[in-house]
Amino acid sequence: MSFKETFIVNGENLLKKIKEIIADGNVTKISISDKSGKEIMSFPVTIGVVGVVFAPIFAAVGALAALLTECKITVEKRKDDDVPPSNEPPKEEGTIIEVK
């Protein structure tokens, strides 16, 4: 499952906010829109990707920030399951568990 969060930032804080979002983790996709809602840039965020791969993206975001006065960042995040792992051994396939 995933959910979306939206942030409104000014151009000079855009790159800083993108780096913070990536550092927080659980992010699968980031989209940047102008203040009227038109999507300008969108990129996936892959688990375990090193900073070198993000260098061209950061350069593009930095150039974009110089042009925009205000923009909207939409972040798609994975929702972690809040169910703690069970100490029971895994059930065999085909076992029916009845929930009341």
UniProtKB/TrEMBL annotation:
It comes from the Bacteria. The keyword tRNA processing does not apply. Keywords: Membrane, Transmembrane, Transmembrane helix. It holds the Pfam family DUF4342. Residues 3-77 form the DUF4342 domain. Coiled coil: none annotated. The chain crosses the membrane at residues 45-69. Residues 89-100 have a biased composition (Basic and acidic residues). Residues 78-100 are annotated as: Disordered. InterPro entries: DUF4342. This is DUF4342 domain-containing protein. It comes from Sphingobacterium phlebotomi. The lineage of its organism: Bacteria, Pseudomonadati, Bacteroidota, Sphingobacteriia, Sphingobacteriales.
